[in-house]
């Protein structure tokens, strides 16, 4: 598992609270779920649980799921009244089926092999009601991969409470499988006269083309309902909505 979601989980929480407008995320996903008349939702890749209280406030039966015990520790600490479970999206079984499953924060990007994607969609299908909804966001390969064909270094900064964080990332295409790229990151805390290194992370990340997503859906018992283009933090993405057949 990536360091960002284990040893650096507290840094993740601090930085992404400044990168992501969680109220905007909540309203986007909740409006889609209401459009398809979903009253219950499983959020896969819930991380530190920042969307959980909003879904409950809007009347959804909510369950958050993540593979990282460190991230869920923060979620349970911050939102003890909400339900969170630790599980792998490629193979899980809920106590009861739900009306919808959303995969937020581009979490599908960590499914770098076709088998991983197939297994995850199959497992999600089994845990949805008939005509249940699957909704997730993808990094758009057609837009992003050409941007990093020669490698790309980017710097992100964030302030949280009394601390200032600095992240240097380097993206490099890896053509060994699908549209993957490596994401090497070094995290620092900004001190008065220097940067103090606090950790680093290396991830294999996958971008997707729309046609391959549609094929995965067809192979795992889903019917495409709509695709919505949506810029997000750091990447151009598209959001997929599908229905269990």
Question: What would you say this structure looks like, in words?
Answer:
With 245 residues, the chain is of the alpha/beta class. The chain folds into two domains: 3-139 and 209-244, 3-Layer(aba) Sandwich (Rossmann fold), CATH 3.40.50.150; 143-206. The chain is 28% helix and 40% strand. It contains seven helices and eleven strands. Strands 3-2-1-4-5-11-10 form a seven-stranded mixed sheet, sandwiched between helices. Strands 6-7-8-9 form a four-stranded antiparallel sheet, with helices on one face. The longest helix is centred in the N-terminal third of the chain and has 14 residues, at 22-35. It is globular, with a radius of gyration of 18 Å.
List the helices and strands and how they pair.
Elements: H1 9-19, H2 22-35, E1 40-44, H3 52-57, E2 61-66, H4 69-78, E3 84-86, E4 98-103, H5 114-126, E5 128-139, H6 141-144, E6 152-160, E7 163-174, E8 179-190, E9 195-207, H7 210-219, E10 222-231, E11 236-244
Parallel strand pairs: 1-2, 1-4, 2-3, 4-5
Antiparallel strand pairs: 5-11, 6-7, 7-8, 8-9, 10-11
In short:
The chain is an alpha/beta fold. It has helices at residues 9-19, 22-35, 52-57, 69-78, 114-126, 141-144, 210-219; strands spanning 40-44, 61-66, 84-86, 98-103, 128-139, 152-160, 163-174, 179-190, 195-207, 222-231, 236-244.
């Amino acid at each position: 598992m990536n360091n960002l979601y284990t040893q650096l989980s507290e840094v993740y929480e601090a930085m992404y609270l400044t990168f992501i407008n969680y109220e905007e995320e909540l309203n986007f996903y909740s409006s889609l779920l209401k459009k398809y008349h979903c009253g219950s939702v499983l959020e896969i890749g819930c991380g530190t649980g920042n969307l959980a209280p909003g879904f409950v406030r809007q009347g959804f039966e909510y369950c958050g799921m993540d593979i990282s015990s460190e991230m869920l520790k923060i979620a349970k600490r911050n939102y003890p009244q909400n339900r969170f479970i630790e599980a792998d999206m490629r193979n899980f079984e809920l106590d009861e089926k739900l009306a919808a499953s959303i995969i937020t924060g581009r979490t599908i990007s960590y499914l770098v092999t076709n088998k991983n994607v197939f297994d995850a969609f199959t497992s999600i299908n089994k845990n949805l009601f008939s005509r249940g909804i699957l909704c997730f966001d993808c990094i758009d390969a057609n837009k992003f991969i050409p941007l990093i064909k020669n490698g790309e270094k980017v710097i992100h900064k964030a302030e949280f409470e009394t601390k200032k964080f600095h992240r240097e990332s380097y993206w490099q295409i890896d053509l060994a499988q699908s549209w993957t790229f490596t994401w090497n990151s070094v995290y620092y805390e900004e001190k008065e006269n220097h940067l103090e290194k606090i950790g680093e992370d290396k991830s294999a990340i996958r971008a997707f083309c729309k046609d391959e997503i549609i094929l995965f859906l067809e192979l795992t018992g889903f019917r495409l309902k709509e695709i919505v283009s949506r810029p997000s933090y750091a990447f151009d993405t598209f959001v997929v909505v599908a229905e269990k057949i």
